[in-house]
Amino acid sequence: MPSLEELLTKSIPELKYLFLERNRPVPKGLLEALDADPRHGAQYLAKRIRGRYRNNRSEGQRLHSLLRFEIELWAQGYSLIAGVDEAGMAPLAGPVVAGAVILPRNYKLRGLNDSKKILDATRRDELAIQLKQDSLCWSVGFAHVEEIDRINIYYAGLLAMQRALQGLSCLPDFVLVDARKIPNCIPPQRGIIHGDALSASIAAASIIAKTTRDAHMLELDAIYSGYGFAKHKGYPTPEHCQALRDLGAVPIHRRSFARVRQALGLDPIQTELFESHEEEFAAEAAAAQI
To answer: Which residue segments constitute the domains of the chain, with CATH numbers given?
Structure first.
């Protein structure tokens, strides 16, 4: 890093690139020198750098809070804590996919959050790549359309979670799950309501599940054209519902779901299931269109 004297010979755009875009450490005395600089751009840059400091502190506090369940378990002697979550309960087509991940102790990744709160798909993909690189181990599990129609979507979600957990290359000694209880889970587990927004491990699993499912739906879009799977990922958007009415159902449509059955001229079923998960499904459907 250049000395303070050398930095002060640089232009404001050069300093902005270094300390805002590249996020380089700010040397002692630079902010004071920018404050004293008569140029408006220099004083504005100092203000923005201080704003970056505040944002970094706030993000650090948020990420620490996101570890509160893990910190409690580490204090009790648990070491390998797995987070598990699913994606794809609401769609009319495609599988439900679950993610399972074991993060390193005290792991903090800027931007880590419930996948439904990360509206930029590119950013979700970037976070998923980083999580896979940094995690002690991770896995995904699928429950396919035939299984969804046979055992219903709720139990298919649990089946996908069970498969994701069983796919981990290292056995966890505790499992954190988003508001569920996984059948046949050997380690102790805890279901946390809205866990994907409250636990770093579950949030990480939600991102891996979401990005895996989205990528799979892109592949299915190439096979079943005309339905817009690449855009809406199978969720019941107006465009998807219209395509279903116009074109009928294809093999990846969930025939146990009311809107698909209506398109086929069959009586609706599972109505009570959709009512019990109405808020969750609405949030997923909204995020799918981003």
So the answer is: 4-65 (no CATH), 66-290 (3.30.420.10)
pLDDT score for 244: 94
Give dist(CA 92, CA 62) in Å, integer: 35
d(CA 199, CA 205): 10
Whole-number Å distance between alpha carbons of 281 and 287: 10
- Provide the edge-to-edge strand list for the sheet that holds 81-87: 137-143, 96-102, 81-87, 174-178, 189-192
Tokens 């995904």 correspond to: 140
Task: Assign 85 to helix, strand or coil.
Answer: strand
* pLDDT > 80? residue 272: no
DSSP-assigned beta bridge partners for residue 85: 99
C-alpha to C-alpha distances, 56 to 18, 19, 50, 51, 110, nearest whole angstrom: 16, 13, 10, 9, 9
Distance CA 201, CA 188 (A): 15
Going 162 to 168 to 171 to 175, the CA torsion angle's sign is: negative
pTM summary value:
0.77
Burial 209-235 (b: 16+ CB within 10 A, else e): bbbbbbebbeebbeebeebbbeebbbb
Query: What is the rounded distance in angstroms from the CA atom of residue 59 to the CA atom of residue 118?
Result: 15
pLDDT of residue 1: 64
Of the candidates 182, 148, 63, the residue with the CA atom closest to the CA atom of residue 112: 63
Q: Which residue has the higher pLDDT, 282 or 98?
A: 98
